[in-house]
Amino acid sequence: MADKLKGFFSKSFSRRGNPDFSPQPWRFRRLLSLYALYARMDLAWLLRDTRFALLAITADVVFNLSLVSGVFLIALRFDGIGGLSTGEVLLMLSYSTLVTGLFQMFFAGCNTGHISRRIGRGQLEHMLIQPVPLPVQLLTEGFLPFSGSSNVVTGTALICYALSRLEIAVTGWWVLSLIGNMLVTLSLILAQSYLWSSAAFYAPVAAEEIATDIIDGTGTLAVFPLSGMPAWLQIPLVTALPAGLMAWFPTLSLLGKPPMGLTAAFPLVFMILVATLASIFFRKGMRHYVTHGINRYSAVGHRR
What we know:
- This protein has helices at residues 2-9, 28-48, 50-77, 86-107, 115-120, 124-128, 134-140, 150-166, 172-197, 210-221, 231-234, 248-254, 266-292.
- By secondary structure, the protein is mainly α.
- The chain has one domain.
- The chain is globular and about 55 Å long.
């Protein structure tokens, strides 16, 4: 039985034992059709149990607003924090809310963002038997445009309000810079998740929730501006635990004053480094998974 299972999984791997992430050519139209499929599924869930869905959406909005309101009220009371004006703090909090919303919209469903759950619960088999490349599944399965878009709407509204307070000239280049920074931040969140989730291949029970701890930990600290803090606190928070790269650093870059004497491209360089490490360790974990398997299965969180 073990030999059959190993042979079955080996179809998804190359001759060198690395995961084959492109077993079939696929087109952009196919990607859009998958997004449309998961959007219909999300809408069906919303309409099937509207009361529960509205409660979940409201809870998300209340939680994220409560997370940022405390810092904003402190900034309002003291007319800024660490050299940042109240409007600049609000822009940082708005950025954090919008990035959180984008993560929830594209990667909250089916635990594609919290991938350690799928690994630790033995659910990768569901993905390996599908006639769709694994990266395409990871990119599309988590799409929740209806039930997961509340923080995107809230974050967008907050950013518009913050910009009106700051009186920033919103040019086309500034909007592109905002989009680029958000893509980098979102990629960094995913890279961290996949890097640490590699541990779930070896310790599925102990590391099942490691992605959740990493994402929630950096997300909670991300709403605190690091301006005014000593360097011995700032450096670890933009490297070892990069909470400062989730909102504080990108916001100051958008305002034209990257902190700590670093270039505005620092988050991009750091993200590429973490993504590279995540690719290396995740592939090693996949090879271990194919060879040894996981003697555990739980259907919790799997979309059926």
